[in-house]
Amino acid sequence: MTVEAREKIFVTKPYLPPKEEYLAYVDRIYESGQLTNAGPLVCELERVLADYLGAEHFQYVTNGTIALQLALKALGIEDGEIITTPFSYVATTSSILWERCKPVFVDIEPDNFTIDVSKIETAITPDTRAIMPVHVFGYPCDVDGIQKIADKYGLKVIYDAAHAFGSVYKGKSLVSYGDISTLSFHATKLFHTVEGGACIVKDKDVSAKLDLIKRFGHNGDEHFTLGINGKQSEFHAGMGLANFAHIGEIKAKRKAITELYDSLLGGKLQRPANKNGLEYNYAYYPVLFESEEQLLRVFEKLNSEGVYPRRYFYPSLNKLPYLKEYTPCPVSEEISSRIACLPLFVDLSGEDVEFITKLIKEAL
Ligand SMILES: *Cc1c(COP(=O)(O)O)cnc(C)c1O
After folding, report:
1. How many whole angstroms from 344 Cα to the centroid of ligand 1?
2. Closest ligand 1 atom number to CA of residue 186
């Protein structure tokens, strides 16, 4: 097939449920007449997802970024330093800055790209309030090591678990660790509600506070605290419910694509290390090239044939131009320079995967 005839392949393509299944939820919205403000579909989605994730306190919100900001606010963190990872999507750092806190970057593990626990303690100061690690690509942080340090120094733990939906670690949902874990249900994520996010909260009172501040901090005419609008609509919840009905097949398809990539690449590119006790969710297919030069060479070849992988995550967030100071994170910077995610989505066919891997092997 010529490049023109072939449909472009991007790193991801949003899953769409059968239209009539979504429209059945739209019918229900027209019947109820309620469009937002904790409507019946939002409440139903919260119940269904809380049950699936084994979460006692689950708050559905407008997106994964506001989820991080609400988490900081709900835990009473208004200033000070937050220890975090430089290897993530920019929202992990921007949410800390937007809440007027200071991100303190701790470098990552070279094998699965999560925060290096052995380097956390030296980064703690009297101003440290919390640790905000990321289960990047759905791979678990050293949750026990992080909790031990948090307990020793009286720090809160907020996991940016935007990639962790459906990963199970040591017999528990990966989003059940920490004081709060946040999720993103953006259209490009494994499970989505077009836009959306959630907070999984350990403590009942913190969850009640988060519920209050996500709807302006008031009940009727009684105003309790400063809040914001983090409420989600019935249409988003309807898309979430329609998608959730297919979560089993979504995960199975992604697993099959991952296994096909593995077998066709035959170990030619480095992959994250397997972690004992992890049931992976197949959220991403990251590969490590030998060098940035090799990555760029493969990208040039793929792009010329209409295939667009993404440099996730690049640049390393400690190098963001609007930070006040630069903290070197050599492992994250080195990995960022030569890592990419290959296309992975439900509609990707076996022939597509064969085509992509053939091009990669040629370029290598
Ligand atoms: C997608 C993502 C977010 C932001 O989520 P939105 O729903 O897009 O606001 C935050 N952190 C990570 C690691 C992400 O991948």
Report:
1. 17
2. 7
**Cβ of residue 64 lying under 6 Å from some atom of ligand 1:** yes
Of 119, 124, 130, 197, which is closest to residue 158 (Cα–Cα)? 130
pLDDT tens digits, one per residue of 248-289: 999 999 999 999 999 999 999 999 998 999 999 999 999 999
Task: Express as a percent the part of the chain with pLDDT over 70.
Answer: 99
- What the block records as the tokens of 237 is 């919840």
The CA–CA distances, whole Å, from 47 to 43, 53, 121 equal: 6, 10, 38
Reading phi first (left if > 0) and then psi (alpha if -120 to 50, else beta), residue 197 is in: beta
Question: Which ligand 1 atom is at minimum distance from the Cα of 88?
Answer: 13
Mean of pLDDT values over 1-18: 86
The pTM assigned to this predicted structure is: 0.97
Amino acid making up residue 2: T
Both structure tokens of 260: 């096909």
Regarding beta strands 307-308 and 9-10, do their DSSP bridges make them parallel or antiparallel, or are they unpaired?
A: parallel
State the Cα angle at 182 between 180 and 186, rounded to 5°: 170
Residue 45 has pLDDT above 80, yes or no: yes
H helices of the chain, in order, are 19-32, 40-53, 64-74, 90-98, 143-153, 204-213, 234-244, 247-265, 292-304, 330-336, 350-363
Centroid of ligand 1 to alpha carbon of 256 (angstroms) = 25
Residue-wise pLDDT for 98-144, tens only, equals: 999 999 999 999 999 999 999 999 999 999 999 999 999 999 999 99
Is ligand 1 within 6 A of the CB of residue 89?
Answer: yes
